[in-house]
């Protein structure tokens, strides 16, 4: 198998709290995988491991067959908050990393303008972050993440704070960029419909300690229309199944709390 990134028998603890226990997970090159699971099951922790922000106590974290030991521009990350520098304009925010690494300024600026146009922000290069809406700021974050040409993008609920309309537009934009670049994407969300529109494959995690309890390859094909996807054969059944599975795990997670409340 053409494995690109993986966790192999990974266990991660924060002091006495075991977050992940002997977890296995792998993505092939160019695959778009969405990770769903109850709050606190370790989804962000998995992204942090693959980004190289955290190291496991046991097991291996691999990218391209090599151990992941530290962050690298070839593995980008996008968070729920766009985290733009307020004192820099849009273009400067997007080009900040490559400029820090002393890449050719004119070349980086030209590519940044291309990415800004692709995410619908042509003409906003000189704007300050405070002049942008939440969706526009997140578009800047997308352009910034894609500029260095990452092999892997790790996305932690990137559209979670956006309104429904903006969210749909961002989902379409992300899929278009992915189809064009064939980047390997691991995307965390709580939204099952978002997962079904975006992913090749949906992974459902158990409550903590997190492991993968469902691995579902979606049959919807690469060309998807967000407005008609729900009428695809099997959409309803798959949505029902995934929702049920996620709820089951969330209930397991909350059970001790309910008992404690009695
Ligand atoms: N640096 C840290 N130190 C101690 N505990 C941590 C740390 N980071 C995460 N945790 C704990 O690890 C567990 C998993 O956290 P994580 O953020 O990975 O969950 P998640 O599945 O992404 O949750 P959510 O869906 O709510 O964002 C949580 O119980 C959290 O409190």
UniProtKB/TrEMBL annotation:
State the family named in the UniProt similarity comment for this chain: Belongs to the ABC transporter superfamily. Drug exporter-2 (TC 3.A.1.117) family.
Which GO-annotated molecular functions does the record name? ATP binding; ATP hydrolysis activity
In what residue span(s) does the ABC transporter domain sit?
5-232
**Designated name of the protein:** ABC transporter ATP-binding protein
What SMART domains does the annotation carry? Answer: AAA (SM00382)
Q: Please provide the record's keywords in A-Z order.
A: ATP-binding, Nucleotide-binding, Transport
Matching entries from InterPro entries are given as:
AAA+_ATPase, ABC_transporter-like_ATP-bd, ABC_transporter-like_CS, ABC_transporter_ATP-bind, P-loop_NTPase
Q: What is the lineage of its organism?
A: Bacteria, Pseudomonadati, Pseudomonadota, Gammaproteobacteria, Enterobacterales
């Amino acid at each position: 198998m053409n494995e690109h990134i993986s966790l192999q028998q990974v266990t991660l603890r924060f002091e006495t709290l075991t977050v992940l226990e002997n977890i296995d997970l792998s993505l092939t090159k160019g695959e778009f995988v969405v990770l769903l699971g109850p709050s606190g099951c370790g989804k962000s922790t998995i992204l942090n491991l693959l980004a190289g922000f955290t190291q496991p106590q046991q097991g291996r974290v691999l990218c391209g067959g090599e151990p992941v030991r530290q962050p690298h521009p070839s593995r980008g990350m996008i968070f729920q908050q766009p985290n733009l520098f307020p004192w820099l304009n849009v273009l400067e925010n997007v080009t900040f990393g490559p400029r820090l690494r002393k890449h050719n300024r004119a070349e980086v600026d030209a590519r940044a303008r291309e990415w800004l146009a692709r995410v619908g922000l042509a003409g906003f290069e000189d704007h300050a972050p405070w002049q942008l809406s939440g969706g526009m700021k997140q578009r800047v974050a997308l352009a910034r993440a894609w500029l260095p040409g990452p092999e892997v993008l790790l996305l932690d609920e990137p559209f979670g704070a956006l309104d429904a309309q903006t969210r749909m537009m961002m989902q379409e934009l992300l899929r278009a960029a992915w189809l064009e670049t064939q980047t390997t994407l691991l995307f965390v969300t709580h939204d099952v419909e978002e997962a079904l529109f975006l992913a090749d494959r949906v992974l459902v995690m158990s409550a903590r300690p997190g492991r993968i309890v469902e691995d579902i390859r979606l049959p919807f094909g690469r060309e998807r229309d967000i407005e008609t996807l729900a009428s695809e054969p099997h959409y309803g059944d798959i949505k029902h199944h995934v929702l049920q599975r996620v709820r089951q795990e969330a209930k397991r997670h909350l059970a001790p709390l309910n008992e404690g409340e009695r």
